[in-house]
Design a protein that fits this description.
187 residues, alpha/beta, Rossmann fold, two-stranded antiparallel sheet, 6 helices, globular, binds S-adenosylmethionine, transferase activity, transferase, SAM-dependent_MTases_sf, Transferase
Length: 187
């Protein structure tokens, strides 16, 4: 029988509901995270913004035996809970503090940049990717035109990532009303 969600995702979803945390990634993004992590079986997989651990759990579901997963969350109670969820697996590290704590673990083979980094220091986000490393960012409103726009204004941040000379990048629909940016650092 096929389960809809991996067990750790279901556990994180339960915690998010208990904690009233509403910013977890949607399952469509989660499956993307799982697939990206699985593509780098000995990779360093990173996440900024652990939240309730839902995205972490999706990344974990694709984690190879030789891979490592490091995630950071500035809200201590959320980080503590996520750390408890993955405490039995030495491949997973949950850091408490600002996203820049991740820098000590770079370069990243997969980086789900979801809480800190993508707006504050986009160039640094690109620097932290390994050659061939994959950056994933979600929660965009689909844009059909170039340059991409949001609410009538050019979306400079999305244009930065989609047009960056060191990235091969695409915007993909995750639902009819939401999109993600997937960008691979050129070797
Ligand atoms: C969109 S939620 C994360 C959801 C989670 N990645 C998931 O997919 O289920 C963003 C999280 O990032 C955290 N955050 C925001 N800015 C941060 C920063 N500068 N450093 C670390 N965490 C940050 C917030 O506290 C929040 O829990």
């Amino acid at each position: 029988m096929h389960r809809a969600f991996p067990a750790s995702v279901a556990a994180a979803e339960r915690f998010a509901a208990e904690a009233g945390f509403t910013q977890s990634c949607i399952p469509e993004v989660g499956r993307l995270l799982s697939a990206a992590a699985a593509a780098k079986p000995a990779g360093v997989i990173a996440e900024s913004g652990t939240g309730a651990g839902v995205g972490t759990a999706w990344l974990y579901s694709g984690l190879g035996p030789q891979a490592r997963l490091v995630t950071v969350e500035r809200d201590r109670s959320l980080a503590d809970r996520a750390a408890a969820t993955f405490a039995d697996d030495p491949r997973v590290q949950v850091l408490t503090g600002d996203w820049r704590l991740l820098e000590a673990h770079a370069p990243f083979d997969v980086f789900f940049c979801d809480g800190g980094g993508k707006r504050e220091d986009p160039e640094r986000v690109v620097d932290l990717l390994a050659p061939g490393g994959v950056l994933i960012m979600d929660d965009f409103t689909p844009a059909a035109d170039w340059p991409p726009s949001f609410e009538g204004q050019i979306d400079e941040l999305r244009a930065f990532y989609l047009g960056h000379p060191r990235l091969a990048a695409a915007e993909v629909l995750t639902t009819p009303a939401s999109a993600a940016v997937i960008a691979t650092r050129l070797a």
